[in-house]
Amino acid sequence: MPLYVSYGSNMDPARLAARTGADPARVAARFAVMVRGMRLAFAKRNDDGAAFATLLPDHAAEAEAIAYALTEAELDRLDAAEGVPEHYLRATIEVIPRRGGPARAAVTYLANPARCADGLLPPRWYLDHFLEAADLLSPEWTAMLRRQEVAG
Length: 152
Hints:
Blueprint: E1 3-6, H1 13-20, H2 24-27, E2 31-45, E3 51-69, H3 72-82, E4 88-97, E5 104-111, H4 124-130, H5 139-147
Antiparallel strand pairs: 1-3, 2-3, 2-4, 4-5
């Protein structure tokens, strides 16, 4: 079963289960990972002008994320929910479990570069989904998300 990693609103296990049809018990077995060499950015422009998250290359940065085991069929449903390929592109990245262990390959979604812009702000409801993973995120990462300026 492929490892899927979310750094955004799919860190909320209820949202991910609803979007993919995944078994909630399997989704609940999620775990925290680190993505080295990438930083979280609210640079993906949605059709309504709101900013959604993406990871951007930054050799000095690390981003926190949540990993799930999903089936290929669930990933296909997530492709549709994420707007592949217009809004996001499915990519393979390397992640390291926060509790230790070897690096692993994982599937994630990175914003289509044609959809990226500077100076965008995410909506509050969107960030609230990120905070549903506060039980697994570091206190520093959670505080950063709580400080994030929002649209409106």
